[in-house]
Design goal:
about 850 residues; alpha/beta; about 20% strand; single chain
Length: about 850
């Protein structure tokens, strides 16, 4: 128990799984938590004069079934393994914590989605800025960035880390935790060794990457070096030093990517539907045709980090076009790609010492299929992908694994059944000895039956009791002293014996078996070590395969959905012919009505009016998604598309609140709008949907008009799509040359409104709200009353206008009748008429 308590003191924030024989045991408070979360029996163990202590346990071979459940519940796990053989040190088995498992470092278990990245984030907030590091232990990806603190939520949203670590000081800051609380579904924890790694960050990074300078990684700022060092330290702490597969750290250059904030990611439904929060109705679900887990993760990264430079965007389009133009090659590549498992995660498991021989075989098979992919593409002399020297890396690794590892090895690394006997002379000899002993047992059984005259006598062995002679109770009386049998075990219906000769054979066999296990484990580690030495080259293979998977996925998408290659331009021109909303079209098929877009720098603001249900929101989202798809390197849903190179897509859509943050629907709307107005540039694309609807009509329309006027007169010239119910704003097109009016066509047939979903020039002054209410199923008594109220309100408005006109007329006539025309000169009369006219205008 002392050993347990010492380890628990070293890992106070973890639930300690303490290996005892064939079980991992939990004690004290850990046992209570484990019993409650895992639903296992809580027992008690005697503890000298102190009475008993709570305990519970799980079988060592089933640990991967239990750990994910604790991690999902928000706990960290420390695994204390036996590192000495109990036979060698019976009085004190030596144990050591071999890894710490957290939400961001869980590599095994049913809850692990291999098609999603699993980032750990280290964050350090300064006065106005925040430095962030993101690392995925499963893939080796490691990136650093610094952003203004107001962009913190956006960056976190882009990477969606499983956990965030803070220094103990910042973790205890209510103000800072308040900032992080704005982001839901996060595991936030202090890293107790933060200061240690922070102080030695520079040297720790140099030692790990084996470099003399960090400039090659783009790391110069002290705060970025510090956060990288701390994050490396956390990974080293959790994996107990086994992080050799992390070969690089990249500093993110925001200028290389089109920026998407958290609001835009959510409102454009890139990964989740806003209605039910499922992935089914998302853009990614529609465009994802990847076949490997590596490709899926990379495609998500391409979508969340669209490119912002013409050359790399055009290269992706060219690559996708190549496979579109060679459908036979596309089909062949995808057929092989479909059988490639997750190389990145296999390498990670082997690197952190939780891989097994089956993982090596899976890696070998995957690398052999990678070779086939490279060979297929090379036949077409397509050199876009950097495949130089890749086949050599795969062949070396596959030959190594094939030489040493059985085709169908056992999954437990310390119980043999992994290594080819012919690959190692020592192992072959040990197996010969063991096999000979097994054959000897069969001969011994025959001899003992003859010697004792007991026909049912059996000779057997098991891992607990070793070799034995088994005789039924009925025949046990036939055992004589001269047989030399020594009782070993009594069963219900039989007795088990041992002899001196059998005991010697048992010693030889068990020694051989233990030697086989030890030798196989040694050789397994030898193979793994050689694979890890090649990890950089193999990670490059995996990355290229992921790139090919992404490109061929986009090609397959283009062929299936009839997407076209967009023309990217640095000019301020946007021309989309018969564009389609990729998600809505996916569900509606041919019923979807396409629409075109034509904007220039001179006329860059489309003010869109029309009723609900007519398709305004679908249209403006459609334009934003087409721009986004083009920048990520995809073909787009249109007949033809010229897309301007953009730096940001902003979206202010729909009515939502954040009451848990003290923000009303209208406050959220205004906060998001203010952020757009502060950050919009001449290369931005902005979509506004129903600005001002969260407050009173007069205030709302005033705010909407003021915002429209502001963005129309910006010295920068962003593309603006402004959908509104305030059809009065259509008058702005006559005042601002940048604004053009558009509306969604609607017709009436037999009193029923028909939404044509077609964009037309010009504005509309009708909302058809009551007609929409009728179609939605509002009771007829309500809609009839609404019609009546609407007519009454129109009559009241007309009467007010008439009263105003009548009053003005009476005042005008009164002024004329009081004039003495004989006393007025023509000039004075003209002046008086001018005054009356001016008063009329005001």
């Amino acid at each position: 128990m002392q050993q347990y308590m010492e380890m628990k003191a070293q890992y106070p924030d973890c639930i300690l799984f303490f290996r005892l024989g064939d079980f991992y045991e939990l004690f004290l408070e850990d046992a209570k938590i484990g019993s409650h979360v895992l639903g296992i029996t809580l027992t008690r163990r005697a503890r000298g004069k102190d009475g008993t202590i709570p305990m519970c346990g799980v079988p060592y071979h089933a640990i991967e079934m239990y750990i994910p459940r604790l991690v999902e519940a928000g706990y960290k796990i420390a695994i204390a393994e036996q590192i000495s053989d109990p036979k060698d040190t019976p009085n004190l088995v030596i144990r050591k914590v071999i890894r710490v498992i957290t939400a961001g470092t869980l590599l095994d278990g049913r809850s692990v989605n291999e098609r999603e990245s699993s980032f750990v984030c280290a964050a350090c907030v300064q006065k106005k800025d925040v430095t962030l590091g993101f690392a995925d232990i499963a893939t080796g990806q490691f990136v650093i960035t610094s952003v203004p603190i107001e962009q913190l939520v956006d960056v976190i949203h882009q990477y969606s880390p499983k956990e965030i670590i803070l220094s103990p000081e910042q973790y205890n800051s209510p103000k800072l935790l308040g900032v992080f609380s704005l982001i839901s579904h996060l595991n936030i924890a202090p890293f107790l060794e933060w200061s240690t790694w922070n102080d030695r960050a520079d040297q720790a990074l140099k030692d790990h990457f084996q470099v003399s300078s960090l400039l090659g990684f783009g790391l110069e700022a002290e705060n970025e070096i510090a956060i990288a060092g701390v994050l490396l330290g956390y990974l080293t702490y959790t994996q107990q030093g086994n992080v050799t597969h992390i070969k690089s750290v990249d500093r993110i250059n925001d200028s290389h990517f089109l920026s998407l904030d958290a609001t835009t990611i959510e409102s454009l439904e890139l990964f989740r539907s806003t209605m039910d929060k499922s992935s089914e109705g998302s853009l990614f679900a529609v465009i994802d045709k990847t076949l490997t887990a590596m490709g899926t993760r990379l495609l998500k990264d391409w979508l969340i980090h669209p490119l912002a430079e013409l050359k790399p965007i055009n290269q992706r389009h060219t690559d996708a076009l190549f496979f579109v133009q060679h459908p036979a090659l596309l089909a062949d590549v995808r057929k092989v790609m479909n059988e490639i498992v997750d190389i990145e995660r296999l390498l990670a498991k082997l690197s952190v010492n939780i891989g097994n021989a089956r993982d090596l075989v899976s890696l070998r098979d995957a690398l052999e299929r990678c070779e086939k992919v490279f060979e297929l593409i090379k036949k077409y002399r397509w050199e876009s992908f950097d495949m130089a020297d890749l086949p050599g890396s795969t062949i070396t690794a596959t030959q190594l694994i094939s030489q040493w590892i059985l085709d169908d090895p056992r999954g437990i690394t310390k119980e043999g059944g992994m290594i080819r006997p012919e690959a190692d002379a020592e192992l072959a000899e040990l197996k010969r000895i063991f096999t000979d002993t097994t054959g000897w047992l069969a001969e011994f059984e025959i001899a003992e039956r003859e010697r004792t005259g007991i026909p049912t006598l059996k000779v057997g062995e098991n891992s607990v009791f070793g070799f034995y002679i088994e005789v039924s109770k009925a025949h046990a009386v036939a055992i004589k002293t001269e047989h030399g049998y020594e009782r070993k075990q009594t069963l219900v219906n039989a007795e088990r014996y041992i002899t001196a000769e059998l005991k010697e054979k048992e010693r030889i066999a068990l020694t051989a078996r233990e030697s086989i296990f030890a030798r196989e484990f040694h050789l397994f580690e030898h193979v793994v070590k050689q694979i890890i030495e090649k990890v950089s080259a193999l990670q490059r293979v995996a990355h290229v395969i992921a790139q090919i998977d992404c490109v061929t996925s986009l090609s397959q998408l283009a062929l299936e959905k009839k997407y076209v290659q967009p023309t990217m331009t640095s000019d301020r021109v946007m021309s989309i012919r018969n564009g389609r909303h990729p998600v809505v079209e996916h569900f509606l098929g041919n019923a979807f009505v396409p629409n075109s877009t034509d904007l220039t720098e001179q006329q860059r603001f489309l003010l869109l009016t029309g009723p609900n249900m007519a398709g305004k929101s679908t249209y403006i989202r459609q334009v934003a998604l087409i721009v986004l798809l083009a920048h990520m390197g995809s073909f787009v849903p249109a007949d033809h598309a010229i897309i301007p190179l953009s730096d940001r897509i902003f979206s202010r859509i729909g009515a939502s609140d954040a009451l848990h943050k003290g923000l009303s629907t209208f406050m959220v709307e205004m906060t998001e709008t203010a952020r757009i107005l502060r950050n919009v540039t001449d290369r931005s694309v902005v979509i506004f949907d129903e600005i001002g609807r969260g407050t009173g009509t007069l205030d709302g329309m005033s705010i909407a008009q003021a915002i429209a006027e502001y963005v129309a007169t910006l010295p920068t010239h962003p593309f603006i799509f402004f959908a509104t119910h305030y059809h009065e704003l259509a008058e702005l097109a006559g005042k601002f040359s940048a604004i053009k009016n558009g509306s969604m066509a609607v017709s009436m047939h037999k009193g029923q409104v028909i939404f044509l979903r077609t964009l037309q020039e010009g504005s509309t002054d009708e909302s058809y709200g009551i007609e929409v209410a009728k179609q939605a199923g509002i009771p007829s008594v309500v809609t009839r009353r609404a019609d009546q109220i609407k007519r009454e309100m129109k009559l009241v408005a007309l009467r007010k206008i008439e009263m105003i006109d009548e009053s003005d007329s009476q005042k005008f006539m009164g002024e004329l009748l009081t004039l003495n025309l004989d006393d007025l000169t023509p000039k004075q009369a003209w002046k008086k008429l001018e005054e009356i006219q001016e008063n009329k205008k005001t």
